[in-house]
Specification:
With about 240 residues, the protein is α/β, with parallel strands linked by helices. The chain has 2 domains: about 1-45, no CATH class; about 45-235, Rossmann fold. It is built from 7 helices and 11 strands. The strands form 2 sheets. Strands 7-6-5-8-9-11-10 form a 7-stranded mixed sheet. It has a 4-stranded antiparallel sheet with strand order 1-2-3-4, with no helix packed on it. α6 (about 175-180) links the parallel β8 and β9. It is globular. The termini are far apart.
């Protein structure tokens, strides 16, 4: 266990002040890594169950093998790592709009950084996932229009609690439909949300995808050990 608290890096990003912190978990003995954006918690290694489940459950809904996978949002890397643990993943394209986070992984400043960035299947791409999803080129600049088997998304807090107001169009039926151009027939889209099931967003997914379901991922809270939960939206063409 390291020092009780350490700020590993601090940057002024286009979205606001961005901080990478490491603190000791006195009860568990391990280090906890946190990314803070605009003085709000963006992600913490204390809670990773839903981020991992996004990959394991999302990939589990796909019948195609081998798989080409896109992850929108690199963060601390738990979704990407869980995807790479699946031996059927042939390629993994991870998109993040913050170069600082990609740098933290490539430099080894984050615990999963070397494992993810040095895997031959991984491509860490700097870009705006939402703009890519609604563009003509899609998620692979080297191969415009390329289709993938699975697209996993963990960027905004929920379909209504956005990091940037400009992301809102993606969560409408038209935005979701544009994204499906980059999925193979039968391809899977999976989304993490910090909120409960949003009936309006669920209906939009159902208007675009042939099969839609939700799954609640429960985990233990930090302070009073009460159960908390996140929502996964799982959609298949």
């Amino acid at each position: 266990m390291s020092a009780l608290f350490q700020e590993l890096d601090y940057r002024l990003s286009p979205l606001g002040p961005l901080s990478l912190r490491r603190r000791a978990n006195l009860s568990g003995g391990e280090d906890i890594y946190e990314i803070i954006l605009n003085d709000e918690y963006l992600m913490s290694s204390r809670f990773t169950a839903a981020e991992k489940a996004l990959a394991t459950i999302g990939l589990g809904h796909n019948a195609t093998k081998p798989m080409d996978v896109v992850v929108g949002g690199l963060g601390l890397g738990y979704t990407a790592q869980a995807a790479l643990e699946n031996g059927d993943v042939r390629s993994l394209t991870v998109i993040d709009s913050l170069p600082e986070i990609i740098e933290w992984h490539r430099s080894g400043l984050l615990p999963l950084g070397a494992q993810i960035s040095q895997d031959a299947r991984t491509n860490l791409a700097l870009g705006d996932f939402f703009a890519m999803a609604m563009s003509a080129e899609g998620f692979d600049a080297a191969s415009p229009g390329r289709r993938f088997d699975v697209i996993l998304l963990d960027i905004d807090h929920s379909p209504t609690k956005l990091l940037h107001a400009g992301n809102a169009g993606f969560y409408q039926a038209q935005g979701l439909a544009l994204m499906t151009r980059f999925l193979v027939p039968g391809g899977v889209f999976a989304l993490w949300s910090n909120d409960g099931v949003d009936a309006e967003f669920l209906a939009r997914l159902q208007s675009v995808f042939a099969h839609v379901e939700t799954e609640i991922v429960a985990f233990e809270g930090l302070t009073d050990r009460s159960e908390q939960s996140n929502t996964l939206y799982l959609a298949r063409l």
